[in-house]
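Could someone model beta-D-glucopyranose with this protein?
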Amino acid sequence: MIENLEQQNLRSRGQTDFWIREQCQELILSDRQIEELMRRMILEINRGLRKETHPAADVKCFITYVQDLPNGKEKGKFLALDLGGTNFRVLLIHLKDENDFEMLSKIYAIPQSIMLGSGEQLFDHIAECLANFVKEHSVYDERLPLGFTFSFPLTQLGLTKGILARWTKGFNCSGVVGEDVVQLLKDAIARRGDVSITVMAILNDSTGTLMSCAHSNHNCRIGVIIGTGSNACYVEKVENCELFDGYMDPTKQHVLINTEWGAFGDNGALDFVRTEYDREIDHFSINPGRQIQEKMISGMYMGELARLAIVKFTKAGLLFGGVGSDILFKRGQFFTKYVSEIESDKPGTYNYCRDVLDELGLEHATDEDCANVRYICECVSSRAAHLVSAGIAALINKMDEKSVTVGVDGSVYRFHPKFHDLMTQKIRQFVKPGISFDLMLSEDGSGRGAALVAAVACREPH
Ligand code: BGC
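Reply:
Sure, complex below.
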């Protein structure tokens, strides 16, 4: 039988879809793989908590020394610093009532030269922004308590002492790893000599998220970040924390743990689900071999993962008639927000997708290309959502409470149209029968959470 041109096109179109779907299979996690991921995650968490296995564990489970959740009565004015997300911020927070607070904040750019410069430059810059802020808001002589949200792995030796274990995301300042970052901040403030500050606590953004959600929802026991980086914090029994250092108050049986789960896989535990795209991202990153799970999940990498798959299929002639563009072929030029935008199109329509492809110089894309690009984005983002879900389900099962609220923050969770639903569905599938949970969007965990940790710390006789 002789095919006419249209039939031939249809046939080859079907084949292109088939090949792309076939090759994207490796990005889809099966339920068995998720079960195995949960098992390995728990193993690593327990290794992180135990003294003997902690040094070699990849999920370090750092003790935060935060032992009190907010009771809703925290009041007063606090300063907060937030370093480690997309921006650096200084905040002035006035906690009034459980559901009433005021927050003033200012975003300051951290140029790449500082992100990759010396620690002294970084902390001088932070101190300068802080000094300008307190002067602008006329609170420089109030000596307000300050909470420092520092969203990198810290070995904490108390609420106000944290030794940087490693840099992550885009940071790599010299002379900071192995140092107490609270001291570095205090030194920089002292070098200026124009402001006086009382640092009440240093905390992680995942801890801030947990605290911020727990303030209005007393059921919150887990805080998760899916933003530039990824991490989780949860409530653990002190008796399981062999590395708890110092005085243990017998009336306090719990402590928050900063899991630093972004490093899950650094020992090879994720190799069974990693793809060539993951290996390439890692290879060209500033921290090869590190933060392996984070590189499969978070906003700093998700767009690039999609780009690598799109490039591969373009070069194989399966997309855009085999014709790419300079922007498409350049590293880092397919932003994670594109993934969210492309997946926001109504089924069968490609308005956002075409905007993105136009920006990339791919005006020649057909509707079929748009559908396939969307499919690739869905595979990458669903995998991220399922990896996060495996971690959350593992934590919920480990905690074994009847009902748990999980506070979640970060740009990926906030802006991706399906992340929340994908997570809810997957977590439900894997939590033990009889346990109920819900996911709650956090209200500025890094800012309000820092004020709350500082407020709770002010209650204590340190
Ligand atoms: C850091 C964590 C942080 C997470 C989210 C990771 O790269 O190691 O400390 O919580 O990013 O910001």
